[in-house]
Design a protein that fits this description.
Oligomer: single chain
Order of helices and strands: EEEEEEEEEEEEEEEEHEHEHEEHEHHE
Distance between the termini: 8 Å
Largest sheet: 10 strands, mixed
Strand order of the largest sheet: 1-22-21-20-19-18-16-17-15-14
Number of strands: 22
Radius of gyration: 23 Å
């Protein structure tokens, strides 16, 4: 199922052309971390819930109707509670027409285990709220609403499902990933940064990395970044530095529609990791690699997205020309577009054609030029999730209606 939040803009079918990343603009920073870990109001369908039996959705929420054949139920996808404590579940419900001996129930499951009942009743209307035991912390949670009734006129209506963390507004102690933790991805990370502007297979690329790479035994994940047509790594310097300050080793050179230069760069980085005396000797995590780029850099990324060493790909303001770019995807993908960008129509088509897990944000007040700059903090969080094992970001920053970046534009995701 796909999930959509925020406003949706009508976008014409505009052919993708390539522009230079040259000008700067106001930096858009996301709202502070939201209190909700997960929320669903069923305004766009079932969201991440799945249903069995007779279940419908509408402005009223989700409605389960009784049946003599099978009892209806509504079950959420796994909700990641890694790093969260003092978890509370709330929702509204309204039971209607149930006879004696009939009932609805609400239950939760931890790590795919058996369900524990939160409430079971024949008549109930309004809001309900339950604090879950400490045993759910750092686990995965599923919620289930079910109805035991024999007539389609007997119903349970559910709305405004919310899972929230501690009263301090979020995960107080996120578990450590492979990099030093940070409190705010919109700020520079803990590393001082070194830039080598004559690096790479041809000596014409930029290598941007933590100055003290390998300190405290850290192995650094890798991002290979492709600039837009007519631009070069210097046009993205502040963003490359931002990502490196968070612990990623970033390589960038002038892009092409053919992404072979990215594979060559990764081969070169592997050699650097094995070269005694080099600045990155045995300091790279070669199992945690992302390719990504802006405009033409995104197109080149599609071209080599089936590279087996990749964990994820990032596509900014660069949809494929024919809609077939997603065919090469093998791993979760991040799409970022702009509501004033001519390339967004192609990205919309690519999103439709994407069969791997994907998260897409069409940023407000953003054109082709500003898409990377306005989306750079989304990219930071995405890299920390997919390459640095910060699993709490899955729900907190991305896969919930109250996610950190949901207020920046039109968000949708699917296949998670």
């Amino acid at each position: 199922m796909s999930h959509v939040s925020g406003r949706r803009r009508a976008l014409g079918a505009v052919a993708l052309s390539l522009m230079i990343m040259g000008s700067t603009g106001a930096l858009t920073t996301p709202a502070s971390a939201a209190t909700p870990v997960y929320s669903e109001d069923f305004s766009d369908g079932l969201g991440t819930f799945t249903a069995s039996g007779s279940v419908s959705t509408g402005t009223y929420g989700a409605r389960l109707s009784g049946s003599l054949l099978s009892d209806p139920s509504l079950t959420s996808a796994a909700i990641d509670l890694t790093g969260y404590g003092d978890v509370k579940v709330s929702y509204t419900r309204a039971a209607s027409g149930l006879d004696l001996g009939e009932s609805f129930s609400v239950a939760y499951s931890v790590d795919g285990g058996s369900f524990t009942t939160l409430e079971s009743a024949r008549t109930a209307t309004g809001a309900a709220s339950f604090s879950l035991p400490d045993s759910v912390e750092n686990r995965t949670l599923r919620l289930r609403f079910s109805l035991d009734a024999g007539s389609v006129l007997e119903t349970l209506t559910v709305d405004d499902v919310l899972v929230e963390a501690a009263t301090d507004g979020g995960p107080a102690d996120p578990p450590a990933g492979s990099l030093p933790p940070v409190a705010d991805v919109t700020r520079p990370g803990p590393y001082a940064v070194t830039v080598d502007s004559s690096a790479g297979p041809g000596g014409d690329g930029w290598l941007v990395h933590p100055a003290n790479a390998g300190q405290n035994g850290v192995d650094h994940p890798i991002l290979v970044w492709g600039p837009g047509a007519g631009s070069d790594p210097a046009d993205y310097e502040d963003m490359l530095r931002q990502w490196a300050s968070h612990g990623f080793v970033v390589y960038s050179e002038v892009s092409s529609n053919d992404g072979d230069y990215m594979v060559d760069a990764l081969d070169w980085l592997e050699d650097e990791n094995a070269r005694p005396g080099g600045p990155l000797y045995q300091d790279l995590d070669l199992t945690e690699v992302a390719f990504g780029g802006h405009s033409r850099g995104s197109i080149g990324t599609f071209d080599v997205a089936d590279e087996p060493r990749l964990e994820t790909t990032i596509h900014v303001a660069g949809g494929s020309f024919d809609g077939n770019g997603p065919d090469s995807l093998r791993n979760p993908a991040l799409y970022i577009g702009g509501d004033e960008d001519f390339a967004t129509a192609n990205m919309e088509r690519d999103y439709t054609n994407t069969d791997v897990p994907v998260w897409f944000n069409v940023l407000d007040n953003t054109d082709h030029i500003l898409a990377t700059r306005n989306g750079q903090h989304i990219i930071t969080a995405w890299l920390r999730w997919h390459l640095a094992d910060e699993e709490f970001r899955r729900t907190k920053d991305f896969l919930s209606t109250g996610c950190t970046f949901c207020g920046l534009g039109d968000v949708r995701y699917k296949h998670w």
